[in-house]
Specification:
Helices cover 35% and strands 13% of the residues. By secondary structure, the protein is of the alpha+beta class.
Length: 100
């Protein structure tokens, strides 16, 4: 025998919104997640200022504020990377000259 009963249930629906503009963000797959790498704010596609080209499932994105503050630091990092590469080349050159 089947008896039917009527019940009332409360359903809680969680939705994610962009922390910058307030637009609803749809996250169906992990590869669609967009959180600023520095401040962790949830971002919609319109509010992603810069995205690093990565090969994995996780996106590396930056919001406008964090990307703007980082400009002088990125320039300094790039200059230091050039200096590091020059020093590595010099080191290898000295060793190869010593072997010959």
């Amino acid at each position: 025998m089947i008896k039917k009963t009527k019940t009332t249930q409360e359903v809680i629906i969680s939705r994610r919104y962009c922390d910058v503009c307030g637009a609803e963000v749809y996250w169906r797959l992990q590869c669609s997640v967009a959180q600023c790498k520095i401040c962790g704010r949830d971002l919609c596609e319109r509010c992603v200022e810069y995205e690093v080209d990565t090969m994995g499932d996780y996106r590396e994105v930056y919001c406008e504020r964090c990307w703007g503050v980082g400009e002088p630091y990125r320039k300094a990092i790039k200059e230091h990377e050039k200096e590091i590469n020059r020093l590595n080349d010099e080191w290898i050159e000295i060793l190869t000259k010593a072997e010959t």
